Each structure stands twice: as C-alpha cells, then as structure tokens.
C-alpha cells in the first residue's frame, strides 16, 4: 500500500458512501423509458390529495446545463448580473420569455370529460366533480411553480387523467427550459418526470397518464411532444372535446 493510499484511501470510499446515501435518501422515483409505470394502489397512495407540480426555469442557451467557461470572470466583473431574470434565446436574434402551463384532461367513469387549465381560468374543483383542481397560473417560472390537486378519495370515479404541459407563449422553446413534473402521493416516494428530450418546435407535451385499470391506479410516463396545442393532444388520446382559441389577460 502506498503512502497516498494510507493517507487518503478511506477518504475516497467515505465520499462515495456519502454520495450514495444522498442519492437514495432523496426518496424520488424517476419514471423513465425503461421504468415508465408506477402503481399508486400497490404503494398504498390512494387516499388524500395527490399533488402534481410543474416547476421550471429558463436558460439562455443549449449549453446551460453546466458552468460556462469564463463564468467566474463574468461574475466578478458584473456581480449584479446574477440577480437579473433569465430569458430564453429563441431561434434567431429575438429574446423571449416562455410561459409553461400545467393542465389535466379528465374522463370520469360516468362519461363526463373536460379539462383543468390556466387558460380560460378553468381551475376545477377538489371536492366535487371532476375532483381535480389547479392552484393557479405561474407565468414566470417561480420556485413553487403550478400545482394540480387530485382527490384520490374519489379514485373510483376516475377513468383516466392526462397530465400535460403546453407553452402559452407563441414561441416553442421546450428545449430551452429546465422543466420537471413531480407527483407527490399521499404515501410513498414522489415520482419525477423531467422534460429533457429535444423537441425544439413542439408546443405541447403529454407527460403522464393516470388510469384506473380494474381498480388499480396506474401512473404511466408518456412524454409525447406535439406541435399543436390541446386539440392535437385530444386527437392523439381520443378524448373527443371541442376546442376554441383562448387568451390570457395581460399581467
């Protein structure tokens, strides 16, 4: 054994053990292509409110995932720049903000269908049909994001729920945002789906499908990007709703 191994060998092992513990201690289950489904019923997470959260922040380039070269120098030269809100670089010279919205199409066992979404201020209801309610509209990518609450005490009345995200802003820029949809069941680990796939022209993304399959509430990762809005997702999943153009009030 070398002197280096005697002095520092245990440090490396301890660091690795700490890293492993931190990863497992997070308690999150990431839904991926290889592991796309999760049973809320088998987890015992079929009572209370299921929270579905969309959190996102904008980035300035496709290479913003790691520290940029020269970032330390820029930080020293312009110390107040880090407090300036980031904007997304569109294709071309224009700089745009991106407004991501969290929404849910629902179909109940009695055949009733609809949507809960910020557009049109269709916020739903947690204690009466459709037993799905949106917290509100986050237009700026704040830390709390947007949250949909699903009343799992009425799970027997659900047939299927499609959780999706769309870009209200006219510029498609999914590939220039850091977006995460997280489910917080009443029991068990949280479930995460990162919207990381490159789809530069897409305007909407079907993220998760929650289905009542013979009493078993199954969550399935979809992550299907489309180039249109709600009507195109509707056609993709055969929901059969009627759609019209909608607008948000100016802030």
Word description of this protein:
This protein is an alpha+beta fold. It has a domain at 36-60 and 91-237: Lipoxygenase-1. Helices cover 17% and strands 34% of the residues. It has helices at 3-25, 40-43, 71-77, 230-237; strands spanning 29-30, 37-39, 49-58, 88-89, 95-96, 100-108, 113-116, 124-125, 132-134, 146-151, 158-167, 177-184, 191-194, 204-213, 216-226. The strands form three sheets. The protein has a seven-stranded mixed beta sheet with strand order 1-13-12-3-10-9-8, with no helix packed on it. The protein has a six-stranded antiparallel beta sheet with strand order 2-15-14-11-6-7. It is globular, with a radius of gyration of 21 Å. It comes from Streptomyces mashuensis. This is Tellurium resistance.
Highlighted features:
251 residues, Lipoxygenase-1, seven-stranded mixed beta sheet, six-stranded antiparallel beta sheet, 4 helices, 34% strand, globular
């Amino acid at each position: 054994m070398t002197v280096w191994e005697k002095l520092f060998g245990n440090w490396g092992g301890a660091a690795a053990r700490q890293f492993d513990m931190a990863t497992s201690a997070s308690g999150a289950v990431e839904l991926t292509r290889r592991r796309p489904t999760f049973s809320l019923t088998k987890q015992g997470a079929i009572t209370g409110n299921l929270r579905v959260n969309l959190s996102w922040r904008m980035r300035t380039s496709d290479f913003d995932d790691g520290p940029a070269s020269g970032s330390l120098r820029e930080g020293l030269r312009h110390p107040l720049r880090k407090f300036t809100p980031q904007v997304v670089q569109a294709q071309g010279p224009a700089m745009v903000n991106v407004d991501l919205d969290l929404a849910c199409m629902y179909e109940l066992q009695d055949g009733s269908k609809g949507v809960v979404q910020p557009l049109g201020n269709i916020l739903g209801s947690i204690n009466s049909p459709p037993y799905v309610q949106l917290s509100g509209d986050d237009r700026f990518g704040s830390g709390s994001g947007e949250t949909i609450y699903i009343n799992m005490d009425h799970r027997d009345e659900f047939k299927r729920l499609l959780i999706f995200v769309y870009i209200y802003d006219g510029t498609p820029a999914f590939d220039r945002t850091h977006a995460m949809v997280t489910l917080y069941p009443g029991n068990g680990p949280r479930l995460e789906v990162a919207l990381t796939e490159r789809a530069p022209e897409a305007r909407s993304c079907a993220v998760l499908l929650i289905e009542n399959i013979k009493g078993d509430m199954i969550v399935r990762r979809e992550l299907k990007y489309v180039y249109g809005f709600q009507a195109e997702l509707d056609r993709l999943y055969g929901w059969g709703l009627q759609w019209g153009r909608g607008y948000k009030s100016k802030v």
